[in-house]
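Anyone opening a protein record will find just a pair of labelled lines. With that in mind, the following record should read easily:
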Amino acid sequence: MGFEPWERGNEHSERVTAQRRAGERAGVGGTPTFFVNGMRYEGSYDLAGLSGAVGPALERAAAEPGAALRDRCEPRREEDG
């Protein structure tokens, strides 16, 4: 068939290893782990919990263009909510 599924195995392995390391640096300890605008989400994984985190982020992005990028670049303080 002319198809060698493992011919680029090292390339894929290096990419997966880099992604795993990036996750570890971000505090990922397992799956699933969610991030909202670059901040690790630590609430419940049900629809209400995730919607409660994503909804306000979407509203803020609509009201304040560039806010999502700024959120990813600037660490949030506890008092910011």
